[in-house]
Amino acid sequence: MPVARKDIELDDGSIITVRQVSGKKKLKLEARQAKVFRDYRHFGEPTDWTTEQHEEFADALDEAGAGLQAQVDEWLEDCIVSEGIEIDDLTSAELLEVLSFVRGDLEIDEDTDTEEGHSVPLEPSQE
Q1: Which residues make beta-bridge pairs with 6?
Q2: What average pLDDT score do residues 17-31 get?
Q3: Which of 2, 25, 29, 59 is most buried, most CB within 10 Å of its CB?
């Protein structure tokens, strides 16, 4: 099955086309994420973690090159299909919206043309 594509409207009203990251590229980063997660499984279920535990985990992801910035650096350039788009010109909100689709947090249901959530998005660490 080919990776999904989607048009996303930016804050200025322009439309860009993005695609989800390929499985091969996604697996590299997800392997680093999984290693970090295994180191933190003693915290229990992520939905039960405290704010401090989430922050510690996010910091560990960043240190392992598996956090939010790594996703932007490794995936977005190849996943923004539209020509002439500079990633550095996108706002934080635009980056997070694009990244949410690129990594597969939301997929388009072809039968209903609606978005469905498939994973818990990683929150950026509080700096």
Answers
A1: 18
A2: 94
A3: 29
